[in-house]
Amino acid sequence: MTGTADSWFQDIREPSSPASTASSFDEEEVNCRIKPYWPKYNNLLRLRGFRLDTVRDVKEHYRKCNMQFPAGVRRTFSGVDDDALCPDPGLHDNLFRGERVFDGTKIIVKAVSLRSREFDIISFLSSPSIRSQPMNHCIPVLDLVQVHEDSTALIVMEEWSSQLIPDDGPCSLRLFLEAIRQCIEHAVFMHRHNIAHLDISLHNLVTDYKGHYAYIDFELSQRFEETNPQIRERYRGTEVPPECEKRNCIDPYKIDVWALAILILRACKLTGYCVPELVELVKPMLHENPDNRPSMMLVLRAFDLAVSRISPQRLAWRSHLTRHDS
């Protein structure tokens, strides 16, 4: 990609919908998205202090979000008790909303295979010694429930929002750059621990509206033992770098570098922050040859240097855009 900053933003193609993106691990049963029978786990989760959403809860969620309860679901639950369990039709089958009973914290429960890469990675990133490290920006995991007879794990996490800017007004350039820095820093952290996310995108970025941002959806992610790992199977994530169409052996970390560059450009475009310094930052990240892309650590250093040269007046500037729907 070459040209002016404006042309860079114009050249970004709209991403594929995650729902239609084929997983590179579809052939591996334990890493496929599963469809659990949620009523079976309701009492187990209650014993651990969590409550799954009912018909009443889902209706209330749609009311608060100013969305109409889908007609098909409305017909399905016509005459059904409002206290009956109800999955949100807007979520995948392996996800279920709920709340922590003692304080009402909204949660998402994700069902995965006990032997999946996702469960292994989430367990590692949520372990006490790793969770406490400041560069780890994972969404808080409240519980990991292992159901061995089903070879299933239930990942209970706080529910954060994919709408990265709240409705009540725009954020400053300073806050926007702090969010971008968290995205870079967490990628550095994962790579240091031999983890490639492999699906970095705005679709997989959430916030708690308290200045914290996190990647979600580790379904494609891999954790490696070797020093210089290569992906040899077909790769299909949301943002696909050019080498994935041409090579059999692909550096997974350089896939993340490419995808993060696209995330940064999309975030700039959608929030109204067309920052020339960020355009210069992403140019080497989008090099056609992955061997010529910088490491995540070099990206972080370049970002910090670029931001240090932005005046306080510019950092205080606020975009005219008030919303960012991923």
Structure description:
The chain is 34% helix and 14% strand. The protein is an alpha+beta fold and 326 residues long. It has a domain at 5-13 and 161-318: Transferase(Phosphotransferase), domain 1. The strands form 4 sheets. Strands 1-2-3-5-4 form a 5-stranded antiparallel beta sheet. It has a two-stranded antiparallel ribbon with strand order 6-11. Strands 7-10 form a two-stranded antiparallel ribbon. A hairpin with a 5-residue loop joins strand 8 (205-207) and strand 9. Helix 7 runs antiparallel to helix 10, helix 8 runs antiparallel to helix 9 and helix 9 packs antiparallel against helix 10. The chain starts with a helix and ends with a strand. Residues 1-6, 16-27 and 322-326 have low confidence and may be disordered.
Low-confidence stretches are 1-6, 16-27, 322-326
Mean pLDDT across all amino acids: 86
Number of helices: 11
Q: Give the biggest sheet.
A: 5 strands, antiparallel
Quote the distance from N terminus to C terminus: 23 Å
The total beta strand count reads 11
Strand line-up across the major sheet: 1-2-3-5-4
Fourth-tier CATH superfamily name of the domain at 5-13 and 161-318: Transferase(Phosphotransferase) domain 1
State the CATH topology of the domain at 5-13 and 161-318: Transferase(Phosphotransferase), domain 1
Order of helices and strands: HHEHHEEHHEEEHEEEEHHHHE
Q: What is the global morphology?
A: globular
Percent range of helical residues? 25-40%
The top level CATH class name of the domain at 5-13 and 161-318: Mainly Alpha
CATH architecture of the domain at 5-13 and 161-318: Orthogonal Bundle
Protein name: Protein kinase domain-containing protein
Pfam families: Pkinase (PF00069)
Region (Disordered): 1-25
InterPro entries: Kinase-like_dom_sf, Prot_kinase_dom
